Amino acid sequence: MRRCPRARMEASAATWLLLLLSALATDAAPAAVAVIDMRVGVDGPTKLACLSAAGLDNRETAAAYTMSDDYDASWLSTLLPNATVQQTAPLDYLASALSRYGGILYSSTANNGFTAVEQLPSIVTLAGLLDAVPIDEQLYGLLPKTKLALDTRGMWGSAEEAVKYAAAAGLNRTSTLAMQDGKPLLTGGFLADWIVGRRLFAMYLQQGCIPFTADNALLNSIISQAPWPKPIRVYGYNSLDVVFGGDLFEAETDCINSMGQIASAGTNNLAFWSQVSPPAQPLVQPVSPPVVYNKSESFIALVYGDMDNIDFVRSFGSDHMRERVARCTAMRNAGESGGTCFPLTWTLSPNLIEFAPAIMHWYYDQSALTGGRDWFIMPPSGTLYSYPGEMPADVQASYVEQQNAQAAVMNTSGTIHWEWMFTWPEAWRNYFPRYVGATPAGSGTRAFFLNDVPWVVPIIDMTLEGITFRWVGKPDSPDSVVGFKPALNWQEGSPGGGNPGNATVIAGLLSALPRGTVTYAYVIQNTNLTSVFEMVDQLEPHVRLVGYEQLVDVARQAALAEQ
Questions:
Q1: Alpha-carbon torsion 434, 357, 66, 125, what sign?
Q2: Measured between alpha carbons, how far apart are the two ends of the chain, in Å?
Q3: What are the percentages of helix, strand and coil residues in the chain, rounded to 5?
Q4: Bond prior to 221 in cis (omega within 30° of 0)
Q5: Other CB atoms within 10 Å distance of the CB of residue 157
Q6: What is the pLDDT of residue 245?
Q7: Average pLDDT value over all residues in the chain
Q8: What is the Cα–Cα distance from 375 to 373, expressed in whole angstroms?
Q9: In this structure, what are the phi and psi dihedrals at residue 126, rounded to the nearest 5 degrees?
Q10: For the sheet containing 103-106, what is the strand order?
């Protein structure tokens, strides 16, 4: 297996594009894969140890695969049906791994009020730095011949002490940051293979993002000393500070404005999939048929969102794709009476290019079965879940380069884009213009599907102007870019991220938009796909659903018609 290269983010766009393309190169399937099934009867410390050991084993080749749920089993059989599988019991696998790597011993009991879970981020950081497997006292008792690389029992009295120790041990040898909670995530091993295998620096300080606190000062100190390229790509999930039902710092940019998130808190096997190359062919999207604008119709693109979250990509996102293919195939097989599938634009994390290119190819391959009615754009906000309008100028410039390079690999020109309600002026003034002329005409990111944070507040300036889209540059120029204000967000049955209405309610709202409207509807991924089909069936005849590139073309026609 060829190792998937880690692109240096400060490289030029051209260099980074070559690195991304090399990640998609063809290579042989792994000769043999040790499969460790932990779906039943395996405790947390054993899961953490097995996933950490898998991270070490998968540094150079796809050698060890863990199963934490049925999705893990499904992906392995789907993407590597011919792999030679060696079923290995968790303790047998650990005995072998510990004999090769040694262990880091930690206590699972409290130490002067300092709980075991608070130290786990630093434990897995040290496991990556020392090439060792974290084990608790119970596992050590089962495997007493283990050679210890480090015994951490009693070493620290707080999470802050543990973070400082890990930083001193090798911050300069880590690749980027992980915000990963000890409980319930690392106690189940989630993301440990990636943290250990790629030597991420993991931490989860309770007040790390709260200004003027000791934790925040420590986090800023770590960021200032770390060798990490910017924007800093933060794995895991930051759910420490909940405000109005949402996680205030989940996108990380409001914590430190050079950071953005790759949501991946409940994911495993990234170290394995990063070593598995997909088929050689490039990622292909269907050609969008031309659409002619007229004021008697409303033009709406449905965007199935939130697939920046790798937890969604590996789980129910794949269920929804399978359902979409099955429904569209049934309609096509029914002939004229069945009709054709409505156009649907999906979001999909561009970071799959690095750590799961085979999974990205699977989504594209599946979408090709719907009859050319499905497309992919980037999720919020492009290369990272972040608020780019808040980033410093030099970080923004790197952000744009990286996003355009990923867009070229994905063969897409669109992305969801989120900003806080008060940062839109900076985004319009400083961020979006960076894309004008940044790449050869017609390539790169050209279409931004906007959403306000918090979502219940409409984008104020566009709402006051009574517009649903805005061009940066001249509409008739292929160098220009466009931003679309959403008609609505839809999260069926849950008001946390959008309108909770059912299919009938949403169909009524979209049908009531003024004729001539050019806009999109953001469908949050955990909205049932069956409901989306039911909603489409109830739209009024004047509502015309289009793909994302068709929406751009219609917006261009509408703008030129007004001149």
A1: negative
A2: 56
A3: 40, 20, 40
A4: no
A5: 12
A6: 47
A7: 91
A8: 7
A9: -65, -35
A10: 133-136, 103-106, 148-151
Rounded Cα distance, 40 and 97, in Å? 21
Quote the DSSP letter at residue 114.
B
Residue closest to 513 by CA, chosen among 537, 491, 484, 487: 487
Q: How far is residue 2's CA from residue 528's CA, in Å, rounded to a whole number?
A: 38
- Check residue 20 and give its pLDDT: 60
The single-letter DSSP state of residue 172 is G
What is the pLDDT, as a whole number, of residue 24? Answer: 53
- Residue with the larger pLDDT of the pair 507 and 338: 507
Q: Is the pLDDT of residue 4 over 80?
A: no
Distance CA 364, CA 342 (A): 17
> Per this entry, what is the length of the chain?
563
CA–CA dist 378, 405 (Å, integer)? 12
CA distance linking residue 542 with residue 312, whole number of Å: 34
User: What amino acid is encoded at 109 in this protein?
Assistant: T
DSSP track, 273-332 = HTT----SSPP--PPPPP----TTSEEEEEEEE-TT-HHHHHTHHHHHHHHHHHHHHHHH
| Cβ within 8 Å of residue 343, ≥6 positions away | 301, 302, 373, 374, 375, 545, 546, 547, 550
Distance CA 244, CA 456 (A): 12
Residue 293, both tokens: 């604008």
Q: What are the pLDDT digits (tens) for 298-351?
A: 999 999 999 999 999 999 999 999 999 999 999 988 876 567 899 999 999 999
CA distance 166 to 164: 5
3-state secondary structure labels for all residues of 414-452 = EEEEEEECCCHHHHHHHHHHHHCCCCCCCCCCCEEEEEE
CA-closest candidate to residue 16, choices 27, 5, 25, 2: 5
DSSP code for 198: T
Higher pLDDT residue, 417 or 113?
417
For residue 2, pLDDT over 50 is answered with no
Q: Which residues contact 46 (CB under 8 A, 6 or more apart)?
A: 38, 90, 91, 94, 139
Instruction: Say how far apart CA 394 and CA 385 lie, in whole Å.
Output: 18
Q: Which secondary-structure segment (H or E) carries 21?
A: helix 13-23
At which residue do the structure tokens 């931003």 appear? 483
Residue 213 · residue 145 · CB < 8 Å: no
Contacts of 81 (CB under 8 A, 6+ apart): none
